[in-house]
Specification:
There is one protein chain. With 142 residues, this protein is of the alpha+beta class. It has helices spanning 17-29, 35-56, 108-115, and strands at residues 2-11, 64-72, 75-81, 118-122, 127-133. 30% of the residues lie in helices and 27% in strands. Helix 1 (17-29) packs antiparallel against helix 2 (35-56) and helix 2 (35-56) runs antiparallel to helix 3. The longest helix has 22 residues, at 35-56. It is globular.
Length: 142
Amino acid sequence: MTQLQKSLSLESSIDQLNEVEALIDSLHESNHIPESVYGNVLVAVTEAFLNAINHGNRQDSTKNTDLDFELDESSLTIKVSDQGAGFDFENLPDPTSPDNLEKTSGRGLFIIKNLADKLTFEREGAALVMTFHISPQDLVEA
């Protein structure tokens, strides 16, 4: 049973990052995102949003980046979608490879994969879905 659903549609601008962070903070403060997963959610969603505006929508502020949050008894699922063409998410370079250690980009999805309990892609990579497991005892009614 879904306990909470929230959606946000923002122009693809780094200036909108504070809106994303404010929503996550609000959900945390109202006890919908427990302390035990809050940090992982904040970093992963921020990273996904930045990837969507920079790589998916190519910093075109006329294109939207959409975020959908759904909380149930056992998990928080967040979908971040852009209006780009997607990417080959199955053949990403390994950022921990010695050849890639000094590169200034290419770590975002690696970070997200390590913070989320589950990561899937939709629409050929133009949308990513992160799932964070939550223990029922961690949820407190707002």
